[in-house]
Amino acid sequence: MSAQWSEEQIRMLINERKNGNEEYHRTPNRNKRNFWEDIANEINRVNNTNYFTGEDCNKKFLALTRAYYTARAYKKAVAEANAEALLEGSDNTETNEGLKAKVKKKRSLVGEHYYEEFSTEFWKEPGARHSTTLSNTPGPLETGSDTSSSPHKQTKSSRPVTPSTETPVVL
Questions:
Q1: What integer pLDDT is reported at residue 15 of this predicted model?
Q2: CA 58 to CA 95: how far, in whole Å?
Q3: 3 state SS of 14
Q4: Chain centroid, CA 87 distance in Å
Q5: 150-165 pLDDT, tens digit each
Q6: Across the 171 residues of the chain, what is the mean pLDDT of every consecutive 10-residue run?
Q7: pLDDT of res. 100
Q8: Phi, psi values for residue 146, rounded to 5°
Q9: Are 65 and 138 in contact (CB under 8 A)?
Q10: How far apart are the first and last CA of the chain?
Q11: What is the DSSP string of 88-140?
Q12: What is the spatial distance between Cα 166 and Cα 135, in angstroms, rounded to a whole number?
């Protein structure tokens, strides 16, 4: 059974991950489990619980980053559809009937809730962060990544890359 997260617990998870970003990237992959366990222990301590695990924290944070990327792709699609409607001479782009048909991206309310904070892409390795404009959408293989050096990114290798056990892939 997966853990139920309150807004306060999610906020704490985000803050702990954000404040520990440099430590996270200095930690070898084989020890990242300890990083997430430390966060889980802190959330459990503050909330007087014992049911959050490091794996729960890692999975929840990955879900939040995926929601952010989904919201970003949706915002980009809406902006492009609005721009196209303006070029076509439509006078009301927000309620344009064709707008919904043109926007084929999924909307993420969770991603929109945390969009501003996640738009800094604070979880990426320092120095590897990119400008986060709406035109920078992730490729299909990097949408669920927690780091900029994702095992899901395409490489020049002709064989698929197997993700590490530290970064669970949720289908």
A1: 96
A2: 39
A3: helix
A4: 32
A5: 434 444 445 554 444 4
A6: 86 96 93 96 96 96 93 87 76 52 67 88 81 44 40 44 48 46
A7: 55
A8: -100, -20
A9: no
A10: 17
A11: TT-S-STT-HHHHHH--SPP-HHHHHSHHHHTT-TTSPTT------TT-PPPT
A12: 30
Sequence-ordered list of residues with C-beta below 8 angstroms from that of 75, at least 6 positions apart, any chain: 115, 134
What pLDDT is stored for residue 130 in this prediction?
56
Q: Residues 12-42, buried b or exposed e (16+ Cβ, 10 A)?
A: bbbebbeebbeebbebeeeebbebbbebbee
Residue whose structure tokens are 């999610």: 10
Mean pLDDT of the chain: 75
Q: Are 74 and 102 in contact (CB under 8 A)?
A: no
Element (H, E) at 75: helix 54-87
What pLDDT does 133 receive?
45
CA distance 81 to 99: 6
The Cα angle at residue 18 between residues 107 and 62, in degrees rounded to 5: 40
How many CA atoms does the CB half-sphere of 59 hold within 13 Å? 15
User: Whole-angstrom Cα distance, residue 11 to residue 14?
Assistant: 5
Neighbouring residues of 117: CB distance < 8 A, sequence distance ≥ 6: 14
Residue 104 has what pLDDT?
62
With beta carbons less than 8 A apart as the criterion, state whether 76 and 46 touch: no
Using CB atoms within 10 Å of the CB of residue 104, give its burial: 0 to 12 exposed, 13 to 18 middle, 19+ buried. Answer: exposed
